[in-house]
Amino acid sequence: MPEGALKLKSGQVVALRLFDLAYEIDLKRAESLWAERAQSASARSRLVRTPPKAVSFGVPPLALDLGPVAIEIGGAPVTVAASVRLYDFGIAAFALRLPVEDMGWDAYVRLVNAMDIAVGPAAPTAIWTEFLAQMRQQLGEALERPSAAPLQEDYLLAVVDGFDIPLTADALQERADLIPLLSGESRPLAEGARRDLLRHRFSYYPDDLAVITWDRAFIYEPQRETDVADVLEIANAQLLEMRTYDELLDDELPRMRDLVEAARRRTNLLASRRYARLARRLHMLVAEVTELAERVDNALQVTEDVYLARVYAAAMDLFRVPNVSAAVDRKLTIIRQTYTALHSEAAGGRAEVLEIAILVLIAFEIVLSLVRH
C-alpha cells in the first residue's frame, strides 16, 4: 500500500437478497418453529440508536441467525455470516456479511465489487435458493400461501466502522473516491453521472456519512450503529412487496375483463347471480390487497428522528416505492369501479327477475279468473 494511502481499520461488506416468500408470515409461529428445529439464535429487530418513541414498527421483523457459510470471492474461499429477517407481510431478507480489517481503500473497493460479482444479481443463485429451501422446510407451517416463484430484490452495503486515523465526512470524501465503490465501474464516469451517484448524501455528526444509490450504499459509522442499514433493508422490503401486488394486479386485470365479458355474453335469468359472484370475488381481492398494502406502508413510521426520516424518505423515493404504490392504487381503482358496475348490474338483474315474476303471477291470476268464469 502506498505511503499515506487511506486504510480501513474495520468494516464489512453486506450482500442483501430479498424474496417475496409468502402472502403472510406468522412471526410468532416462525420463532417457535425456529427454536424447535434449528436451535439457533432469533430476535425481534429494533433500531439501535433511534429511541423507540422516534420510530414505530408495524410488526417488528424476526431476525434469525443462519450461521457461517463458505463462498468464493474473486477465486478465493471466504467464510461469511448468514442471517435472515422475516417481515410479517411475507418478505424474507437474507444477508451475507463479510468482515474486513486492516485493508487499504483501493483493496476494499475491489472487495466490494468482487462480492457483488460473487453473490449479486448477475451471479448464480444457488446459495440464495438453498436459503429459500431451508426457510420453506423449517418454517413452512408459519407461511400462509407460499410463493411458488417469488420476486426478489438485491442490495449491497459497504460499511466502514473506522479508518487508521480519525476522519470527518468531509475529509473522507476528499481522500477517498466513492464512485468506483458506488457504481461498480472501473472506468471513469462523466461528471453528471458522478453527481447523480453522490446526490443522496447524509451526515448527522461530523464523522459519519451515508451515501445511497439505487442498488448500493456506502455507510461510514464509527459508532457501529446499524440504523441506516436497517432502514435501507426495510425500504427494499416495501419495494418488493409493492412490486408483488403490482404484478398480481397486472395478471388479474385481463382475467377480470375476460370474466366480465363471459358473464355479459350469457343473457339468461341466472346472469345476475354470476355478476354477484364475480363482484364478490373482486371485492375480496380489493380488500385483501388494500389491507396488506396498508400493512406494508406502516412497516416503519419515522417520527421524531429527523435524520433517519430523511434517509428513509430518500431511499423510498430513490427505490421508486411511491411510483409502484401509485400504480397499485390505480389498478385497485379500476377493479373497484368494475366491482361497483357488476354490483349494479347484479342488482338490476335481480330487479328484472322480480318484475318478470310479478308479471307472470299477474298473468296467472288473470288466466285463472277467466277459467273460473
Task: Give an overview in words.
- By secondary structure, this protein is an alpha+beta fold.
- It has 2 domains: 219 residues, no CATH class; 139 residues.
- The chain has 10 helices and 13 strands.
- The strands form 3 sheets. The protein has a 9-stranded mixed beta sheet with strand order 3-5-6-7-1-9-12-11-10, with helices on both faces. Strands 2-8 form a two-stranded antiparallel sheet. Strands 4-13 form a two-stranded antiparallel sheet.
- Helix 7 packs parallel to helix 10.
- The longest helix is centred in the last third of the chain and has 52 residues.
- The N and C termini lie far apart (118 Å).
- The relative contact order is 0.13.
Q: What is the element layout, followed by pairings?
A:
Elements: E1 7-20, E2 22-25, H1 27-37, E3 42-44, E4 55-57, E5 62-73, E6 76-86, E7 91-104, H2 105-119, H3 126-139, E8 143-146, E9 152-163, H4 169-175, H5 179-183, H6 191-197, E10 201-202, E11 209-212, E12 216-220, H7 227-265, H8 271-297, E13 300-302, H9 306-318, H10 321-372
Parallel strand pairs: 9-12
Antiparallel strand pairs: 1-7, 1-9, 2-8, 3-5, 4-13, 5-6, 6-7, 10-11, 11-12
Helix pairs in contact: 7-8, 7-9, 7-10, 8-10
